[in-house]
Amino acid sequence: MIFDDFNFRDDDEFIREMTELVKKYGKKACECFSKIQEAGGWQKFVNTAWYGDEKETDIFTFKDCLEWVKTYYDKEKHSGAFVAKKQGGNKLLIKICFAGKDGNPLPDEESHYLIVRCNDLDDNFKNQFGDKNTIILK
Fold this sequence. Notes:
Blueprint: H1 8-11, H2 13-25, H3 27-38, H4 42-51, E1 52-60, H5 62-72, E2 78-88, E3 91-100, E4 113-121, H6 123-129, E5 134-137
Parallel strand pairs: 1-4
Antiparallel strand pairs: 2-3, 2-5, 3-4
């Protein structure tokens, strides 16, 4: 029957949601799907989205940073954490990611990471950075 191909839309909520996404965004959705493929594929995209956290705050404190690191730190998998900062338009961008056992940053699709957009850091955090853009927590 000609409609057999369309029955999956009634049975699978995910497919229905994806169909609605394509209807809502039209060709832009197709462009996004193509960019996901170009950037490493769906598995990498899903894992990166799964592990990534984002936060926006006025002042990001060193205490907040340490609490986030302690929440996701896995001594079997991690040897420390990297905290990097850069100016992003009118916001300061902070990225926290973990180091693998080899001491190198783990890819976003393999471990938790946090991106914070803030106006400023507390004095303790500023002192930790000093004149550098990256600090390593062990």
